[in-house]
Amino acid sequence: MAPKMALVTGGTAGVGLSVVRALVRSGAFVHFIGTRAEVGAGIERTLNGSGPPVCRFVPLDLSRLVEVEAFARRFAAEVPVLDVLANVAGAVLPTRQETPEGFEKTLAIGYLAPFVLCRALTPVLARAPRARIVNVSGSPGLLLKRRLDPTDFPTRKPYSGVRAALDAVHAKTVMTQTLAERLAGQHIDVNAFHPGAVRSDLGRSAPFPISLLFTFGRPFLSQTSKTADFVATAESLSGTTGQLFVGMRPRPLAFEAEYREGLWAATEALVGV
Ligand SMILES: NC(=O)c1ccc[n+]([C@@H]2O[C@H](COP(=O)([O-])OP(=O)(O)OC[C@H]3O[C@@H](n4cnc5c(N)ncnc54)[C@H](OP(=O)(O)O)[C@@H]3O)[C@@H](O)[C@H]2O)c1
Fold first, then answer.
1. Ligand 1: distance of its center to the CA of 185 in Å?
2. I need a surface site. Which of 32, 187, 223, 232 has the fewest CB within 10 A?
3. What pTM was estimated for this model as a whole?
4. Average of per-residue pLDDT across 14-29
């Protein structure tokens, strides 16, 4: 039987690297995305060892949506079936940075790129007997009560790195529920997960005090995310959809339909239908 095929963003560090390793252990072939070519190539070499290849590093800047769209088109043409899409890449940037397409970079990496990938790769996911999309989220206390204004999206408020990161992860969590409903008829399960506290490269760029936590806390943080690995690989979750996993426990996502549709429409208006 052909191995399951997986695509993981953010696979060069932190939570995404944990997911890449877990998927490889489960017997899948894993394509993983990051921007740091040397780091990605090193992980690819280590995991492939001297046996048959089990993974492939894909250098891609997710903040450039035209390139993300082009990659997804090529990928969909090359890979007949995709079983797992894991959207794990994220960033917390101390100052506002704008992409060449005019988007705030944190939002582009953490939300707009996953939106584009999910949309472009749905046809290849739908070819799997039962596919899954898993999206990194975070603490329910920080993310479930949050609301964005779809008429001011992305917000014109003054930039804050922490708020931009939370907005991106919140929007991706809302998208998880919308996709779970929209893709149920195509046998694609869509879930989000809170990874827990995981050793991370976020400290490289994040503003204080997040940088402090991830830099000095690094030796004390787990190298793997049990929740992320479970949600990405567990066969027992086949058919489970529209949930936010905290630990091993699912919690149904329950954003209001009007809010979700407003955010979806605002996002389509941004990235083009
Ligand atoms: N770590 C935790 O404890 C924790 C807890 C709750 C939530 N989260 C969330 O989990 C997500 C990932 O966090 P992490 O801790 O795994 O961070 P990390 O260790 O810094 O890893 C981030 C990953 O995203 C990739 N990435 C960043 N910018 C990119 C870009 N422009 N294009 C392509 N890839 C890009 C990085 O690849 P390159 O460096 O190669 O570009 C790296 O693989 C974030 O949204 C974070 O908020 C993490």
1. 31
2. 223
3. 0.97
4. 98
